[in-house]
Amino acid sequence: MEQQRILDLLGEMSLDEKINQLFQGCGSFYTEGSVATGPASEQGFSEKTILEAGSVLSVAGAETIRKIQKHHMENHPHHIPLVFMADIINGYKTIFPIPLAQGAAFNPSVAYTGAEVAAKEASTAGIHVTFSPMVDLVRDARWGRVMESTGEDPYLNSVYAKALVEGYQGDDPKKPGKLGACVKHFAGYGAPTGGRDYNNVELSERTLRDDYLPAYDAAVKAGALLVMTSFNTLNRIPSTANKWLMRDILREEMGFEGAVISDWAAIEEIKNHGLCEDKKGAAKLAMEAGTDIDMMTTCYCNYLKELIESGEISERLLDEAVLKVLELKNKLGLFENPYKDADEAAEKTIMLCAEHREKAKEAAKETFVLLENSGILPLKKEEKVAFIGPFTEEKSIIGAWSIFGEEKDVVSIKEGVDHYGANAIFAKGCDSIDPGKEMIGMGPRYACRRTKKEADAMIEEAVEVALKTDKVVLCIGEHMAQTGEAASRGDITIPKQQKKLLRAVARVNKNIVVVLFNGRPLDIRKIKELAKAILVVWMPGSEGGNAIAEVLYGETSPSGRLPMCFPYSVGQVPVFYSEFHTGRKLDYSNLDNKFQSRYLDIPNKPLYAFGYGLSYTQFAYSEVRLSNNLMEKGDELTASVTVRNTGKQKGAEVVQLYIKDDCGSVARPVRELKGFKKIWLEPGEDKEVSFKITEEMLKFHDINMDYKAEAGSFTVYIGCDSDTDNQATFNFI
Ligand code: NOJ
């Protein structure tokens, strides 16, 4: 539709109609059985509001959506279609690995493909917009939502943000099989104090700009249609009421022209944060700040009229917001085609089709991170191996945000190994949830009703099985429901009964391979002590079992690298590689000196560093070569290394470029990731890997908050992880 026609439409709409266009209600207002993704405590929506609403969340299915849309358009005064939005995070029906795992692939095409498949399936089911990507920078493993992010690094997150938006939207979200992307949660949601979900965030403006904003910016620049506000306060101001964030930074500086949607009930929560006394006050603050769509509260629909009629806010603000919603519908082509791709017939063939499953399996294989291997992996197909542990059969490995994905469609490890034709025996050993415990708020499905005695008997049975084979693959980890939204944890180890199982098996069999399921970095010191190999598989998705079997048996070498440090213990958290210099840097050769920046009882270094991961083969690096050791303003340098596969198998190496600003007008990080390349090498093969170093890569917010590169010396590191010492220096003049 032409822009003028949209403006005309806006002009024809009544005040009520315009206000209701900003309302987003959940699917249960329209149909039974839709998923609620937030507390449904909020009531008081009038029938008129629902009838004139602008969008709906969390409903799916071509037939259902067609029905709702038809009814809505017939009854709406201007026949304006609804936009259907939902959380399609790592897949719709074919579930890919969780986003944190995708970050571990260090290969943005994994995320692109996952988003492309998700868009195809979800759009066929009638959905128009996904609440993804979540690009929040995360450094605190206690926060359950780290699983939804691609990790701790601004550069890695930015590369993935772009890939995800492009995967969902293609070159035009209007086209068949595409979705509009909604970037979230703006801003700083990934840094809640104490790692507790929904908690406040305090970040200096410099840290916000240097580390947290780049990924949102990358998603905006990639053309994301929407941005979602975050629940948190940022430096005491709730994001949803933060004019500076949304008007100055997002719209002015980043140039975002799409619609801003609140997170679930976040407008009303402005009141809970103590910034206003009532919902009316919350509506005023959110509207002034630039929040266009109100997800699931009555703040806008019940109070905006009063605010406008009393002159407390101008109708111009409302019109601006409504225009954004109408433009969104137009960008999705809904005025011409309100049902977009909803197609019942295609739904039957496309969901979980062989092609999508194959892509999900290949993606999963790239995300696994081999942390330890003292020669025990890969397994041989003929050798008899005992697979023990709750995750041999667990099907909830699609992750906490797979709201339309179904566990019945998941390939478990047992099925994957059987399908692979390996010589394996199995024992569950224990449940993934401790005996007598339930996952808070998850109902009876995620609970373990077994008594301690029954649970211990299962361990004994598993020990008998462990005695029958030379090697044991122990499949353990955290339960899916221990991760995700509202799943912060103060203890980031695996559940108690699983620890008991590990100890019991280790007493009778020393050849243990741990396959670790997790939605966050865990404290795995005990596992490290008792296992000969550790393979981190995160929440690998629908094809998890097949992917794990193929990697364990060496068909593909593991090639994932950690997108977040694995802490030594929770006491270090938040721990991340790009920390700042301190005045008293720990001198490891003089640990008797107390007055250094250190802990008395634990090391400073994480157990496993950012970027770390092994392969079944080994790689050797040449020294770093620089095309010049002087770089002038506006110039570029090339930094290169030669990497050789010195082992006996094909494998992938993630060649990582870090830069350290040796001296700055403000304290600078000890190093920062500025590039990476994943290369596959045959045994004996070598490749030259080069990176361009540009002035842009040296920029930061200086003492005056100017974004620029300062003259001086820089150290360039190229190696296999964030600890590499392979370096060269140049001067920027
Ligand atoms: C709350 C979550 O914070 C957000 O990520 C999600 O998109 C919305 N609920 C809608 O389900």
How does this structure look, described?
The strands form 6 sheets. This protein has an 8-stranded parallel beta sheet. The protein starts with a helix and ends with a strand. It folds into 3 domains: 3-346, Glycoside hydrolase, family 3, N-terminal domain (TIM Barrel); 357-560, Glycoside hydrolase family 3 C-terminal domain (Rossmann fold); 619-732, Immunoglobulins (Immunoglobulin-like, Sandwich), CATH 2.60.40.10. It is α/β, with parallel strands linked by helices and 733 residues long. It contains 20 helices and 27 strands. The longest helix is centred in the first third of the chain and has 17 residues, at 108-124. Residues 37-38, 57, 87, 131, 184, 263-264, 485 line the site of 1-deoxynojirimycin (NOJ).
How are the elements arranged and paired?
Blueprint lengths: L2 H10 L2 H7 L1 E4 L20 H6 L2 E3 L4 H14 L7 E4 L12 H6 L3 H17 L4 E2 L23 H16 L10 E7 L18 H17 L4 E4 L3 E2 L2 E2 L4 H11 L5 E3 L4 H7 L6 H11 L4 E2 L3 H11 L5 H17 L12 H7 L3 H14 L1 E5 L11 E4 L24 H8 L3 E4 L24 H15 L4 E7 L18 H13 L3 E6 L7 H6 L2 E4 L7 H9 L66 E3 L3 E2 L3 E2 L4 E10 L5 E11 L10 E10 L4 E9 L5 E2 L5 E2 L3 E8 L7 E6 L1
Parallel strand pairs: 1-2, 1-10, 2-3, 3-4, 4-5, 5-6, 6-9, 12-13, 12-14, 14-15, 15-16, 19-27
Antiparallel strand pairs: 7-8, 11-16, 17-20, 18-20, 20-23, 21-22, 21-26, 24-25, 26-27
The chain binds 1-deoxynojirimycin.
